[in-house]
Write a structure and sequence with these properties.
Structural class: alpha+beta
Number of strands: 19
Distance between the termini: 47 Å
Number of helices: 14
Strand content: 15-25%
Shape: globular
């Protein structure tokens, strides 16, 4: 086993779990002008993001901000998803046998940021760690894998017990991201990958730096240094962009979207929108007897006005969604909506179920879209006789209480890049098993042809919607504000990434 040296990153652990909504002193530091760094025409870039993850371990943590910094920039998957959904080699090319049971990956020559070579041992190590991940979208990728074999230093053979659509798709996602041997030990604090940028200094509550990796195996990025600042106050971030203190706001998820007209009116700035792989949804705790009667769950679903949510919580930068299909352009999406907005029907269902004055605690995170969603859901559910008590949490506490190892909530609302297979039995944090969904989805995964898989997945997502344990509301449009001279922003995202590779100053 080769020695992999830990990378320098965190000055200390005292800041872990802090939000981008920091104290006044830290916020002042984060927003202080940095004219010497953020200058058009230099190879330095300053980007802001509204979220800071508690740490960088994506095998456990679900904070979207992890992907925004690491995916494709610092840590790379074997394959890369293209705009049309096809896959291309990134760290490996592959061949598959006609029966869909054997994949052979031929690795490219690449180095990790610690100077060691990327080889088959790293693939085997990464796969073994991911098989143990508590995140189902990572670990379930390997459900059909029966053997992983190192053929030689640059070749890996993976044998499946059955065909699996999920396995190949996973190789372009989190389950395909390559860590060096032993890399999981430092992933939370100082990630190491093969990407075009190495992880630099992380100042919890303030910023993290990534630096161009001069030994990168592909085309080197334009920017040598990228500073990513955690600014939870989106209005403050917009003001910093207008003042020239930052060059780019990665994703606006809250009241910053309300400034879109002002940004469009400024010739020095640009508003960029891309289809998102972020979906907002409501989840109910299946262990809670309040929701055991499906009529109660149906009433909650019928009480939700998705059009109002798209406007009220997302300033119109979202599309109503009844099905958990993410991204929304996947071929198994449809217009099926079993519980369209119908408050009268909701009230009738509650009456039929013998439920009156139902009290429900809604747990939500206190940044981005959390407060707006809480307010809207309190009003909409209250209108049909469901009394919602909001329970605000800082992000770190929310992730622990709702998405941690022992979920503790009644109802919650959250937005993320999750896909519906995250809720296969045992149902992830919602603990909701839907047998009809599981059966159809698992059959789809084992399908050999794409058409057969699509038909079965359409059946699966419809069954999942019918059960109403997890209720989608809207699919986002990602909104980014940038300096108008900045070019090369990728027109799509596959894992909520902020892809820095192609960015440059326009000539």
């Amino acid at each position: 086993m080769r020695e992999h040296k830990p990378q320098s990153g965190v000055r200390g652990l005292a800041g872990l779990g802090r939000l981008a909504l920091v104290s006044a002193a830290v916020l002042t530091l984060a927003l202080a002008p940095q004219a010497a760094f953020a200058q058009v025409g230099t190879t330095n870039l300053v980007m802001s993001t509204p979220q800071e993850p508690p740490n960088w371990d994506y095998t456990v943590g679900t904070a979207t901000a992890i992907n925004g910094v690491l995916f494709l920039n610092v840590i790379e998957p074997l394959l890369e998803t293209q705009q049309d959904g096809s896959l291309k080699p990134l760290l490996a090319s592959y061949e598959v046998t006609p029966d869909g049971l054997t994949y052979t990956f031929k690795l490219v020559k690449a180095k990790f940021h610690d100077g060691t070579d990327f080889d088959a041992d790293d693939v085997l190590y990464s796969f073994e760690q991911y098989k143990k991940s508590p995140r189902p979208e990572i670990s379930k990728t390997f459900d059909a894998v029966s053997n992983i074999e190192k053929v030689d230093a640059s070749t890996v053979k993976v044998t499946l017990s059955r065909p699996s659509q999920a396995f190949l798709a996973g190789m372009s996602g989190l389950a395909g991201m390559m860590l060096p041997e032993g890399g999981l030990d430092n992933l939370a604090k100082a990630p190491v990958g093969t990407g075009p940028f190495s992880f630099g200094e992380w100042k919890p509550g303030i910023e993290v730096d990534v630096k161009r990796f001069e030994d990168y195996h592909g085309d080197k990025p334009y920017f040598e240094n990228v500073r990513i600042r955690f600014i939870g106050d989106e209005i403050a971030a917009v003001n910093a962009l207008m003042a020239g203190d930052i060059d780019l706001i990665n994703v606006l998820v809250g009241d910053g979207k309300e400034r879109a007209d002002a940004v469009k009116a400024d010739p020095k700035l640009a508003v960029l929108t891309t289809p998102s792989n972020q979906v907002n949804y409501i989840a109910l705790d299946a262990k809670n007897p309040k929701f055991a009667d499906i009529r109660v769950r149906q009433a909650i679903a019928h009480a939700i006005n998705r059009e109002d949510i798209a406007i009220g919580a997302y300033s119109g930068f979202a599309e109503p969604a009844c099905l958990f299909v993410n991204p929304a352009n996947l071929p198994w999406n449809s217009d099926y909506c079993p519980y369209a907005y119908d408050p009268e029907k909701a009230q009738a269902l509650l009456t039929e179920a013998g439920v009156g004055n139902l009290d429900v605690e809604l747990k939500y995170y206190n940044i981005s879209d959390g407060p707006a969603m809480s307010e809207l859901l309190t009003d909409e559910l209250g209108a049909v006789g469901i009394n919602v008590k909001g329970a605000s949490r800082e992000l770190a506490a929310y992730l622990d209480e709702v998405l941690g190892s022992t979920p503790n909530f009644e109802m919650t609302t959250l937005t993320g890049p999750q896909t519906v297979d995250s809720f296969l039995c045992p149902g992830w944090f919602a603990s909701a098993c839907v047998p009809e969904f599981d059966e159809a989805w698992n059959k789809a995964d084992a399908a050999v042809t794409a058409d057969e898989a699509t038909a079965l997945r359409k059946q699966a997502v419809n069954a999942f919607a019918d059960a109403a344990w997890v209720i989608p509301t809207v699919a986002w449009m990602d909104v980014t504000y940038a300096n108008a001279k900045l070019a090369g922003w990728k027109p799509y995202r596959s894992q909520a990434e902020a892809d820095l590779r192609g960015l440059h100053w326009a000539e």
